[in-house]
Structure formats: structure tokens, C-alpha cells
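Fold this sequence, please.
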Amino acid sequence: MSTVVLATGNQGKVKELSNLLAQHAIEVVPQSNFNVPEVPETGTTFVENAIIKARHAAKITGLPAIADDSGLEVDALNGAPGVYSARYAGENATDTDNTDKLLNALSNVPTAERTARFHCVLVYMKHAEDPTPIICHGVWEGSITTEKLGEQGFGYDPVFWQDEQQMTSAQLPRDLKNSLSHRGQALALLVKELAESV
């Protein structure tokens, strides 16, 4: 079993990635186990932020690192909240604060124009100076509801509608969500890349 540090403090992401990677004999350890401080996400793209986080975690722990940067892109809001998804309603915003702000911003937008997608960029760095990190990008199309539905998941899941399933991602069974989601897609690509590079 190889160990990789996951550059996030988000317990939802740690749990989701741990479940997905355990079957590939990769143990995911959150950076908090090593007292790695959060690093400012100064990038303007998901790719830049993921690289910043992976490099920081690898440098401090000396272990290979996986970092993800993900967010929600809403067409009617010109791509917002985008890279600011986690802090859309402010620096210490909760999931509820963020989803409430989003629903508010879309209050006058008709259903047909509420298209959106989740993006997830996963970066794997063998070490802090890795000049060729593995970068994988997953995209999950959907739309934004007018109210929150479902108790599963985290973040914007209760307002992210899946037309094919006729439910939000917060109502999907976990296994189905993992196979459909932006993070699931990016992780499937990453696992494939890691298997080929070993």
C-alpha cells in the first residue's frame, strides 16, 4: 500500500477520495495529519490552484501529493462562482452560505438558463519539484435548482440537478455519484495515469 498525502482540509473530499483510491492500494492521508498549513490559493484557474496545493503538501511532508481544485461554473453568472466556489459568500463561508448566495443570484433566472457544471482538476506530484505533474480534469454537466433537495454530499450538491437521474447530486446514492461526478471522472483518469506510470 503506497501513501499519498491529500492536500485538503475538506473532510468530505478526504472521505470521497479515500473510498475511491482504497481499491487501488493507495492510502490517502490528509495533510492535517502532518500539520501542513493551508496555502493561499492565488491562482486564477483550477489547474494553477491544484498545483500550488500539491507542491506545498509534497514539500512539507516529503510524500507524493494529490491536490484537487474544483468548483461550480454557472453560465448565467459568467462562470461564477468558479475558482471562488468554496468562498463565494466570503472567506469563512459555510456550504449553506454559498448555496443561499447562489440561489439568490439566480432568483430571476428561468429554468432553461440555469445550466451549470462542476469542474475538478486533480494534480499528482511525485515530489515538490516534479516538473511533469499528472493533471486530470473531470467535468459534470447539470443545472441549478430553485431550492435545496437531498441530504447527501456537500457543497453545492443540494442545488445541482441531474436531468438523467431526475434528482440533485445530494439525492444520488454515493456509488452512483462517485461514478458520475467531476471528481469521480478526474480520479478515474488519475488512477489510469498512475497505473501506467508505475
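Strands lie at 2-6, 26-30, 65-74, 115-125, 134-144, 160-162, 167-168. The first strand starts at residue 2 and ends at 6.
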